[in-house]
Amino acid sequence: MNKKYDVIVIGGGASGLMSAGVAGESGQRVLLLEKMEKLGRKIRITGKGRCNLTNNKIKEEFLNKIRSGATFFERAYDTFSNFKTMEFFEQQGLPLVEERGGRVYPESGDAWDVVRTLEKWCSKNRVEIRKDVLVERVEKKDGAVSGVIANGEFIESPKVIIATGGFSYPSTGSTGDGCRFAYNLGHNIVPVRPSLVPFELKIFGISELKGLLLKNIALSLLVDNVLKETLQGEVEFYEFGMGGATTLRLSSEAVDAIDEGKKAKFILDLKPALSVAKLQGRIKRELDALKTITVAELLRKLMPKQMIQIILKQSGFQARKMVSTLSEEDILKIISTIKNVEMPIIDHRGFKEAIITAGGVSLKEINPKTMESTIVKGLFFAGEVMDLDADTGGFNLQIAFSTAYLAGKK
Ligand SMILES: Cc1cc2nc3c(=O)[nH]c(=O)nc-3n(C[C@H](O)[C@H](O)[C@H](O)COP(=O)(O)OP(=O)(O)OC[C@H]3O[C@@H](n4cnc5c(N)ncnc54)[C@H](O)[C@@H]3O)c2cc1C
Fold it and tell me: Hey, which bits of 224-269 come out as E strands?
């Protein structure tokens, strides 16, 4: 290995590969250091192995999906947008497809193809890639970066890009090293929290729901009994609680509430498309047709069987009670429970299961036009290591690509 480079990139994930390739394209001598034995370990598991690499929403809608740091991110977006990202991958020989909600995937359906494409592009731009190399420290001299210590050796460079990701899914190599480097160099770190994460719920019979996927539901988040947001979509159950797309979209506010010691709960509407009156009509029709139906049998006609015990428990009716013996008020109580299943949150899960990390290197100390630190000359940031995060749908990888493009530019 040489001991002197124009640019050193720490991390071979989405942002590291993109920034190294961009830097290499301008003819600079670039070294990319990755501590794992393979590049892009996290990319490989994105989008359930298919890699939802960006989203084709127009600018305004795109920026609306950025939960933290949208104003800061706008400059990076303008320079290397989602549309440029799609053009880039297609030009590198990776055909893409667009799916529901504007999500963009490689046509092959294989996330590894995204890693291979980026790696090939880096090689074409003569980036020197070293795997199994752990960067231990970033060195500075007279207020400017001077290089890094990696595997115990000093490697010199006037420009270092920290592209080490956040703390989530540490098994992929993202263990928060970049935040430590930045902190040691004088940067402020906005407290990190798991985001886009499942929740442990306090519901009778929750473990029975394991594996259940509910589509076309509405989920509301209440903090200290105040309604924060209601979203429609799908939820998925685990032995301990609930995740799935809609839960994840509500997760950042719920995580903050829990961490602040507030009471948070979800309210699940199993039939958002049906008003109370319509549900009353539906139940009446079932009753007219089947006269001798029990409450459990009625519920089975309205929802997956795993949900029945929860509705019975929360509405206070016996499974075997005949619907014909119920009063109008009783029916309304059952309907109300179906539309308002109470799901108090015990806790959020940790970084091991979080899609992204909220918090990170404070954006106040990074120039949004270049991604350079305003504290240490020659120190740059790209991707999730910064206090930038977004909803699911391809927005987080786009954050990595756009910020990396700016950081890598000469
Ligand atoms: C299960 C899952 C699914 C996801 N699905 C999607 C999706 O479909 N679409 C989407 O937009 N986003 C998705 N995300 C989020 C997205 O993957 C991340 O936001 C993105 O990968 C961040 O890229 P990054 O380059 O900043 O960091 P990372 O991808 O975390 O890469 C950082 C790299 O730096 C290396 N590194 C760390 N420290 C050191 C060190 N000291 N020395 C050397 N190397 C180091 C790591 O090994 C790692 O390879 C998903 C995340 C997860 C966990």
Answer: 226-237, 241-243, 264-269
Q: Which residues contact 117 (CB under 8 A, 6 or more apart)?
A: 89, 92, 93, 94
Mutate to test the pocket of ligand 1, among 48, 164, 356, 366 (most ligand atoms within 8 A of CB): 164
Which residues have C-beta within 8 Å of that of residue 367, sequence separation ≥ 6? Answer: 373, 374
What lies within 8 Å, CB to CB, of 84 at 6+ separation is none
Q: Which residue has the least CA distance to atom 4 on ligand 1?
A: 46
3-state secondary structure 265-281: EEEEECCCCCCHHHHHH
CA of residue 53 to ligand 1 center, whole Å: 12
Q: Is the CB of 174 under 6 A from ligand 1?
A: yes
> For the chain, first and last CA: distance in Å?
23
pLDDT digits (tens, 9 = 90+) for 158-208: 999 999 999 999 999 999 999 999 999 999 999 999 999 999 999 988 888
d(CA 277, CA 79): 52
Enumerate residue ranges in the chain where pLDDT < 50.
none
The helix/strand/coil state of 230 is strand
Q: Which two tokens stand for residue 268?
A: 């699940």
Is 0.90 topped by the overall pTM?
yes
Structural domains of the chain ordered from first start = 7-194+352-408 (3.50.50.60), 198-349 (1.10.8.50)
In the three-class reduction of DSSP (H, G, I as helix; E, B as strand; rest coil), residue 48 is classed as helix
CA 254, CA 349: separation in Å to the nearest integer? Answer: 11
Structure tokens at 129: 């890639």
What 321-325 contacts at long range (C-beta under 8 Å, 24+ apart), as own/partner pairs, is 321/294, 321/295, 322/292, 322/293, 322/294, 322/295, 323/283, 323/286, 323/287, 323/293, 323/294, 323/295, 323/298, 324/287, 324/291, 324/292, 324/293
Model pLDDT, residue 2: 60
